[in-house]
Amino acid sequence: MRGRQRVPASTTVLPPQKGRPMVTLPVVARRKGALKTPAADEQSLLPNSGKGGRAGFWLYLIPGFVLFTIVILIPLVWNIFLSFTKWRGIKPPEFIGLENWIELFQDDKFWMSFINSIAMIVAMVIVPTLLGLLIAAMLFDLIGKKFGGKLASFLRATYYLPQILPVAVAAIVIGWILRPENGALNTILEAVGLGGLQHNWLGSPDTALLSIMFVMVWVQLGYPIVIFMAALQRVDPELYEAAELDGANWAQRFRWITISIIRPEVFVVTLTCTIAALKVFGPIYTLTRGGPGTSTIVPSYYSYSEFFQSQQVGYGATIATALTVVIVILTIVFIKAQNRAERAEGGRS
Amino acid sequence: MSTVSISRRTPGDWAILLGAIVLGLLIAAPFALILMNSFKSPADYAASGPLSLPTQLYFDGISAFWNRVNFPEKLWNSVFISGMVAILAVVISVFNAFAIGIGRVRGRTWIIILFLLANMLPQEALLYPLYYMFKQVGLYDNVWAVIIIFTVIQSAFGTYLLSSVYGTFPKEILEAASLDGASRWQILWRVIVPISRPTLSVLVIFFFIWTWNEFLIPLTFLVSNANQTVPVAIATLQGDRIMDVTTTSASALLGLIPTLVFFLIFQRTLTRGITAGAVK
Questions:
Q1: Would you tell me which residues 144-183 of chain A have a C-beta closer than 8 angstroms to some C-beta of chain B?
Q2: pLDDT tens sequence across A126-145
Q3: How many domains does chain B have?
Q4: Other CB atoms within 10 A of residue A329 CB
Q5: In chain A, which end has fewer C-beta atoms inside a 10 angstrom radius, N or C?
Q6: What CATH number does the domain containing B214 carry?
Q7: Are residues B87 and B224 in the same domain?
Q8: Residue A77 — very low, low, confident or very high, per pLDDT cuts 50/70/90?
Q9: Rounded to a whole number, what is the distance in Å from the CA of B227 to chain A's nearest CA?
């Protein structure tokens, strides 16, 4: 019983995250199994007192469905339709078949935006997840045990601090430090005798993307740490002690106990952060607007600028649709991979 | 927690602790820099650099920015939008979850997956049609456009979470209530909602903070100054004439203070909510 209750509870634990709360897709897959009910379960929890029996509950779904249709379903379908049209937003859209899509595949700026998305994945997923695993294990297993849990939670809260900022504000904070003239970083470099390293960090093509990646690592790092530390609470301390007695060193314990136990959370964090990385918009808008040149362009900013600056609505819709397709495919692949991993795990135990 | 090993701190342990503290300082450093430099005059900044404490407290940067964006107005817009979304989205989530978790309507797994779509999609894929639709009905540049959109997006997550919570609601309580002759509507409001209040309050807080932090949709829909939210107002003013080095720092400070305050206020509720959150 405890095992089943943990699912919703652990979902609640996830702290507000900037990317989006999509927190939980992989858990859906798990829940789906839990929800797939045998016939006895196929009735409402309420005895059939009211009118209409189980069907009567549909009434409660009406407001949700109506809003969902207006705000999500219709715009989504409309946007896909727009990707086959030429539209400047005023006269009716003109159907042009696959022209936008052909253009998209030959558009260097579009490919550049996806390459930059990979850089965002490095900065928001790969680096924070790997560092987060190490730091969470270190805080939990070493600092928490040898120096006290208070210190460990204080450090955790410090690492989490940037996560609470609106991402646009976080970008402004770092952007302020990176200002080319009299910016804090350049001033500090000069003060310590490294004046030669001074740079227009966000204004030069060679460092703009790196600077944004730096912002995102700063913002993102606390999220996996908090999730992984919560997950580690599940680990039976005796397991570690037994392993320690058997002569397993820290690295071995990390590899064989920590990683294998918190793997579900690793999946959740990787998936949610990957989706968030593909959607990055705020920092690009506030710091570089995709420039200099196209060096920091990302798909979401590219489509935004096509919509509202170039008035090429059809082409902007094509970019947005392509991004949606990539995200949907990634999600499906992830969930499948997780299910396979869980099955393999189940087979072993 | 094991206390056995407290006495065995090796030099390696101290080295790791030092590393962890240095990392913490690095992460907190931008906050400290912003705080120190928001109260400096540009001349002071030019003379002594970003690392020194202000020689005297200087509030002109903050007040220049405060007045330029009419900060209380932006604050109110953000509070109003986030508050309305938090409440409306929880109400919709409760209705949906009542039908899915308690009513167990047919095809509920698919309904949940459909709702989650709303959370997963990039907002750009909805942006232009929404922009066009709201323009047609006269809600463009109106806070209600943003409220409606985020009510749907947030309630998608709430539906998912609450459905699984309600799916394990104690059946005996529901049966007792309906034996007493309560209708479905009454059971929902007098039994289910009060019992699940801890979870609902956590959702309210999440929705509030998530909506507060949103950027793309408020930026697109709230074009006139009077309607902007805090993050949008701050971001659109970067590069403005008044934004000298310390005023920019002050703008960042004003942007981060409200979220810091929520974090401190809500932290207790959140942790309490999490432990009490599992209704069962």
A1: 144-147, 149, 155, 158-159, 161-162, 164-169, 171-177, 179, 182-183
A2: 999 999 999 998 888 788 87
A3: 2
A4: 10
A5: C
A6: 1.10.3720.10
A7: yes
A8: very high
A9: 18
